[in-house]
Amino acid sequence: MYSVLVIVAALYLATIWHYQTSPKYVLFSTVIFALVYLVWGVIHHLKSKSFHARIVLEYLLVASLGIAIISTLLL
Amino acid sequence: MSIITKLRHWFTPHHTNNFRAKLLHNSGIFAIIGIILVGNVFLRLLDSTSLHILGFTSSITIDEVVRATNETRAAQGLKALSYNEKLADAARRKVANMFEENYWSHYSPSGKSPWVWFNAAGYNYVYAGENLAKDFGNTTRLMQAWIDSPTHRDNIVNSKYSEIGIAVVPGTLQGEETVLVVQLFGTPSRGSIPKKAITQATPVPVQVPVQVAEVKGQETIEIISQPKLNEFNITRALNLGTTALFILILIIDFYLAESLKLTRRVGNNWAHILFINLILLATVIVNAGKIM
């Protein structure tokens, strides 16, 4: 489960590195990464039988924090 | 509640916060997002006031761009380009026109091609090229962006060119303060040799530089403008600080929870740390500059 997140993270990093001068692609990649992260969190807690709506909200907020940090920098 | 108790409440798991740092509660994360957004709006409002204390700053200099260009060419076994004042004049004319007609393109809205400025400066060429950039903070990032772009790189390592001219000029383009960089390449014609070929210029957007070169007669005068606060760099610094603090709280929370063997129904700290670390890296990597 963790390896999936690490692979997605590596792909995100490579994309950001490649498109570092294209704000549109960087922001798009960040949104995709955040969504994947949210889905990963849901699946992870479902599998570990620790799923709760409050935890989903926590992942949603952390993902939103990531998007907010990048979007305020680029927009 | 003493200061230490408050800090413990916000930053470490404790019975007062249900054994989860308050800043890691959903309300805490929501508050951090709010602070980032409100802070950003405040910065932009500050920039739009008549005080206009924010602006774009850049450390790009003409000498550095010439040196970096020639270093890239040397790595390919190509001859160094010599700096030509007529080409530099053409570059300055191009920048002046971009600000005057308010466009970011190789061709002006009125249909002027890049080559018009070569002719206006009295530079007769057999080969010519153009790279444009704006919003870059330093020469290293600017050159890296050009080199990463195949079309711009082709201009930089084109063996047909023998001379270079550069203009780095701050100004307001399309409502935003910026610094435009125009890099012109050329090979002068000898006598009556007609123009044989024109290499398509590739303009690139760059962050507004602080230094401007002006030529009066035979003298090159470097003017260094007053340093300004830079909205991009301020935002980057604030965001980096926020993400670093968030990661630190997550690590402390994880460490104490493990030490105290706390059982909690919360998100996975390591996943959060990985995600926010990637965002932090992206914040460092991302470049405000643009090339065309």
Describe the structure.
- The complex is a heterodimer of chains A (75) and B (292).
- Chain A has one domain (2-74).
- The relative contact order of chain A is 0.15.
- Chain A has 75 residues and is mostly helical.
- The mean pLDDT of chain A is 91.
- Chain A has helices at residues 2-18, 23-47, 53-74.
- The longest helix of chain A is centred in the middle third of the chain and has 25 residues, at 23-47.
- Helices cover 85% and strands 0% of the residues of chain A.
- By secondary structure, chain B is of the alpha/beta class.
- Chain B has 9 helices and 10 strands.
- Chain B is elongated and about 85 Å long.
- Helix content of chain B is 45%, strand content 20%.
- In chain B, a hairpin with a 2-residue loop joins strand 4 (163-173) and strand 5 (176-188).
- Chain B has helices at 3-11, 26-48, 62-75, 85-101, 115-120, 139-148, 150-156, 231-259, 269-285, and strands spanning 54-55, 82-83, 125-135, 163-173, 176-188, 206-207, 211-216, 219-224, 229-230, 290-291.
- Classes of the chains: A mainly alpha (75), B alpha/beta (292).
- Chains A and B meet through helix 1, helix 2 and helix 3 of A and helix 2, helix 8, helix 9 and strand 10 of B.
Features:
heterodimer; A: 75 residues; mainly alpha; 3 helices; 85% helix; flat; B: 292 residues; alpha/beta; two-stranded parallel sheet; transmembrane (chain A); transmembrane helix (chain A)
Please write out the topology:
The complex is a heterodimer of chains A (75) and B (292).
Chain A: H1 2-18, H2 23-47, H3 53-74
Helix pairs in contact in A: 1-2, 2-3
Chain B: H1 3-11, H2 26-48, E1 54-55, H3 62-75, E2 82-83, H4 85-101, H5 115-120, E3 125-135, H6 139-148, H7 150-156, E4 163-173, E5 176-188, E6 206-207, E7 211-216, E8 219-224, E9 229-230, H8 231-259, H9 269-285, E10 290-291
Helix pairs in contact in B: 2-8, 8-9
